[in-house]
Design a protein that fits this description.
Largest sheet: 8 strands, mixed
Strand order of the largest sheet: 2-9-8-7-6-3-4-5
Strand content: 5-15%
Bound molecules: 4'-deoxy-4'-aminopyridoxal-5'-phosphate
Distance between the termini: 44 Å
Number of strands: 14
Length: 394
């Protein structure tokens, strides 16, 4: 009966990461593969208190159907944060709450992509976006990084006639790279000249270890900018609360697509989040998480860089976020490395799964947010053994 399935589902591959995570439910495994926040850092007690306060109000509308655009209080909160953080004026009516920013990607696909349309992404790029967009059968063109910077000559070339350029400019998934202000200016000019949209997805920007993160495409080209945000990495992913901020015609189209998809995102989740945000200092919480992830990164980098065995591998130091990108010498395969890593009960994600057009066969992504210090050290020791075994046979 599989022949009854649509071409779109037949062509879209299951996420390699979800598949690999299933295998590693086994607690003996050390996983650098996922992209999960550290559960010890969830504001568990604060959310529990917010839930108590919320239900004590006896407002039964929290269990009722609600508007597609989402809680007005939450949209105002997001607009205020844009003002405070980036000094940009986004009207709350230009913000729509989504079921995680993952849903935002799906809705953008629905609204923009006809079969065969061209869209552009960083190469390597976020796997969940590749998957979400692929459902609408676009031609995806990749813009490679050269010396950790986006190759703007390629961008200019491929943006012509494209529906949008999807970018994670700050602590990118999978590389951890940052597109700096100077490059942003050049990219904004390219986007404007090609008459297309930039989709700026920014779930990690608040997790800053050094430097600042206060620039935003909206300040440069507001009419061409679609911003995506999420509370998953700064509060809790299970709430499934993200958002799209975009020019009015885009928001109107997104609202129609969202009505058809799920009517609205969980209003209970939104009400709970609003209560949590009203009763707590989110910035203080973000500082705590960022400090913790910075420590994790430092422990990981120190362990990797002090290893004689691993010294042929280039480890890029991320200035924030959750991921570290590594490049093995050309000719070595991270998929082969993963096989030896599996045998040592440690895993990571081979870069190939994030690749669009570029050859990423010698690269890998390492997550450092989820493991504790002892696991990171033991994980690196296992990687060393696996790499030694790989070198023995190649
Ligand atoms: N965009 C990027 C770049 C991500 O890394 C993720 C989560 N890994 C998402 C979007 C989706 O996150 P959520 O749906 O939880 O907001």
């Amino acid at each position: 009966m599989d022949n009854l399935f649509s071409d779109r589902i037949k062509k879209t591959k299951p996420s390699f990461i979800r598949e690999i995570l299933k295998v590693t439910a086994n607690p003996d495994f050390i996983s650098f593969a996922g992209g999960l926040p550290q559960p010890a850092l969830f504001p568990y007690d604060d959310i529990a208190r917010a839930a108590e306060a919320l239900f004590a109000e006896q407002d039964r509308s929290i269990l009722q159907y609600s508007t597609t655009e989402g809680s007005p209080v939450l949209r105002q909160y997001i607009a205020n944060r844009y003002k405070k953080q980036f000094n940009i004026d986004v009207d709350p009516s230009n913000i729509i709450i989504t079921t995680g920013s993952q849903q935002a990607l799906d809705l953008l696909g629905k609204v923009f992509i006809n079969t065969g349309d061209k869209i552009v992404m960083e190469d390597p790029g976020y796997l969940g976006a590749i998957q979400a967009f692929s459902m609408y059968e676009p031609e995806i063109r990749g813009v490679p990084f050269k010396d950790n910077r986006l190759d703007l000559a390629v961008l200019e070339n491929v943006c012509k006639g494209a529906k949008f350029f999807y970018s994670v400019p700050t602590y990118q998934n999978p590389t951890g790279f940052v597109i700096d202000d100077a490059q942003k200016q050049d990219i904004a000019a390219i986007i404007k000249n090609s008459g297309t949209y930039i989709v700026e997805d920014d779930p990690y920007g608040n997790l800053t270890f050094e430097g600042t993160h206060d620039s935003n495409y909206y300040a440069l080209i507001p009419d061409n900018t679609i911003l995506l945000g999420s509370f998953s990495k700064i509060v809790a992913p299970s709430l499934r609360i993200g958002w799209i901020a975009a020019p009015t015609p885009v928001i109107q189209a997104i609202a129609v697509a969202k009505q058809a998809a799920d009517l609205h995102s969980s209003y209970l989740s939104q009400a709970l989040l609003v209560k949590y945000l009203q009763n707590n200092d989110l910035d203080a919480h973000i500082r705590t998480i960022s400090q913790h992830y910075k420590n994790q990164r430092d422990i990981l980098m120190a362990a990797l860089q002090s290893s004689e065995t691993l010294k042929a591998i280039k480890f890029n130091t991320p200035a924030g976020g959750m991921f570290l990108w590594a490049e093995m010498p050309h000719g070595q395969s991270s998929k082969d490395f993963l096989e030896y890593a599996f045998a040592e009960n440690v895993i990571f994600v081979p870069g190939e799964v994030f690749a669009i057009e570029a050859d990423a066969s010698n690269t890998l992504r390492i997550n450092f947010s989820y493991l504790n210090e002892a696991q990171i050290r033991e994980g690196v020791a296992r990687l060393e053994r696996a790499y030694k075994n790989l070198l023995k046979v190649t």
